[in-house]
Specification:
The structure holds 2 protein chains of 2 kinds. Chain A is mostly beta strands. Chain A has strands spanning 3-7, 10-14, 19-26, 32-38, 45-50, 56-59, 62-66, 70-75, 84-91, 96-98, 102-107. In chain A, strands 2, 4, 5, 9, 10 and 11 form a 6-stranded mixed beta sheet that branches. In chain A, strands 1-3-8-7-6 form a 5-stranded antiparallel beta sheet, with no helix packed on it. The termini of chain A are far apart. By secondary structure, chain B is mainly beta. In chain B, the strands form 2 sheets. In chain B, strands 2, 4, 5, 6, 9, 10 and 11 form a 7-stranded mixed beta sheet that branches. In chain B, strands 1-3-8-7 form a 4-stranded antiparallel beta sheet, with no helix packed on it. The chains are: A mainly beta, B mainly beta.
């Protein structure tokens, strides 16, 4: 069965303390791996799409990487405004398979 | 401004009542999707449509119905057969030939 697992469930960081969020997947014939940011009570905001192992994408303090088994979202020197839930999803058809998310809190 | 709109932001349902959630997009996307989000669970697919006048059931379609009469619109009806409708409902769309889905702001459905 195709599956996406995110870890940790929750992460508390001090402002400036870099870390990584993990997304492990077992999606046969992966056609894309997606990262979204979701603020409380809002819809997910698209961050990145990765298509093949070895691919990397960056946006401000965020960098997403992809291997054949997992993806990482690296957060460099986070700020309190980076606090949100980060969702990972994979696809091999027209449907997305979501993980349960990592809730990130960044304290000043 | 191009985007996806959902209305209402909050919706209250009484016992035995059907309610309809609106989703409109002006991105000229072909495919549209409805997801349900519950605390501690990943987003789950309810229904999706790849073209006008055609739609398919997702993983949790029981108790829901949809229509796709226009490319821009994909309303979701939560019927009285859905016994646990309290959730955050999200609409998404994507262009054919692309993989990335974009989401609307969501509707929170509560039961009175």
């Amino acid at each position: 069965e195709d599956q996406v697992t995110q870890s940790p469930e929750a992460l508390r960081l001090q402002e400036g303390e870099s870390s990584s969020l993990n997304c492990s997947y077992t999606v046969s014939g992966l056609r894309g791996l997606f990262w979204y940011r979701q603020d409380p009570g809002k819809g997910p905001e698209f961050l990145f799409t990765l298509y093949s192992a070895g691919e990397e994408k960056e946006k401000e303090r965020l960098k997403a990487t992809l291997t054949k088994k997992e993806s990482f979202l690296h957060i460099t020197a986070p700020k309190p405004e980076d606090s949100a839930t980060y969702l990972c999803a994979g696809t091999n058809t027209d449907k997305l398979i979501f993980g349960t998310g990592t809730r990130l809190q960044v304290f000043p | 401004d191009g985007g996806i709109t959902q209305s209402p932001k909050y919706l209250f349902r009484k016992e035995g009542q059907n309610v309809t959630l609106s989703c409109e997009q002006n991105l000229n996307h072909d495919a549209m999707y409805w997801y349900r989000q519950d605390p501690g669970q990943g987003l789950r697919l309810i229904y999706y449509s790849q073209i006008v006048n055609d739609f398919q059931k997702g993983d949790i379609a029981e108790g829901y119905s949809v229509s796709r009469e226009k490319k821009e619109s994909f309303p979701l009806t939560v019927t009285s057969a859905q016994k646990n409708p309290t959730a955050f409902y999200l609409c998404a769309s994507k262009s054919s030939g692309q993989e990335t889905q974009y989401f609307g702001p969501g509707t929170r459905l509560l039961v009175l």
